[in-house]
Write a structure and sequence with these properties.
The protein has ten helices and eleven strands. By secondary structure, the protein is α+β, with helices and mostly antiparallel strands. Strand 2 and strand 3 form a beta hairpin. The longest helix is centred in the last third of the chain and has 30 residues. The two termini are about 35 Å apart.
Length: about 280
């Protein structure tokens, strides 16, 4: 991955990670160089050694609902033959090791320009066998509520309303990535690949499309129409199911921003959390 315009920070190696690298490559003269990668979670490290490069993803040091590196490892291992993302190399708490994908992260403009290729990648993911890990938003939202210290009154009102309403029935239950946006799509020599699989699970295609359109709302009509055609779904039906999921998704995004803002003290995340509550 080439992260254009974003500097990588050289780290002092975590002894546990260094040990995993040496076990992965016993003939390596040294464990290599470690670089922190930019990202909202801040748990990914690029490792360069004489034997090659890999990506190390640490289990969150603070609780982050649903994020489980062991599940991520198992899903990546299941998806390996489909060539959808990086290959998993090793999992031993707290580090997940993956192959390093050569290529460049798409810009938002490239993400929309390559819509056909992105949808082909997404459609291929949705055709894979179920992972056995079902994503249910009710307990996930309740977990966020329990972990956060500051609870906006709109949050409680919306959460109670959604729980009474019940989660929508899936239009089509498939493996979903749940974080498809420009920054998580890599243009490699072998085609597009998805990274950051920490929220991947079995869920509704309509929820996946709603999450995608939440970050690229300007082109949502095209995303929906093209996906419906490719997947042989009724476009109007897909739109209806997406609308049912949207309040759940909006609350999930606001909850994530709130928890990460509290955990990190990041002013940008605090602004995003505040704006999310105002939008509810």
């Amino acid at each position: 991955m080439k992260l254009s315009g974003q500097a990588m920070v050289l780290l002092n190696p975590d002894p546990l990670l260094q040990q995993r690298i040496q076990q992965q490559w016993p003939t390596a003269q040294a464990a290599g160089h470690f670089f922190a990668l930019p990202g909202l979670s801040g748990n990914s490290v690029r490792v360069k050694t004489e034997q090659g490069e890999l990506l190390a993803r640490r289990a969150p040091q603070q609780p982050l609902p649903f994020v489980d590196r062991q599940r991520e490892y198992r899903i990546l291992r299941q998806m390996r033959a489909a060539h959808l993302g990086p290959s998993p190399l090793d999992w031993h708490h707290p580090w997940l090791l993956q192959s390093w994908l050569p290529g460049e992260v798409l810009t938002p403009a490239q993400f929309n320009q390559q819509r056909d290729a992105v949808l082909a990648l997404l459609h291929r993911l949705h055709q894979q066998p179920l992972t056995g890990y079902r994503l249910r938003l009710t307990p996930l939202l309740q977990h966020y509520w329990q972990l956060c210290q500051q609870r906006h009154w709109r949050w409680q009102h919306q959460l109670q309303r959604l729980i009474r309403q019940g989660e929508p029935r899936p239009l089509r239950l498939v493996p979903i990535h749940m974080d498809v946006h420009a920054g998580n799509v890599i243009a490699t020599p072998d085609g597009l690949r998805l990274i950051d699989w920490e929220y991947a699970a079995d869920g509704d295609v309509a929820l996946e499309l709603a999450a995608l359109c939440a970050v690229d709302g300007e082109h949502q009509i095209d995303w929906i129409a093209d996906y419906a055609q490719r997947s042989q779904l009724d476009e109007a039906q897909l739109k209806r199911h997406m609308r049912r999921w949207q309040p759940w998704l909006h609350l999930l995004m606001a909850s994530w921003y709130q928890l990460r803002a509290e955990q990190s003290g990041d002013p940008h995340l605090q602004q995003l959390a505040q704006a999310s509550w105002q939008d509810l």
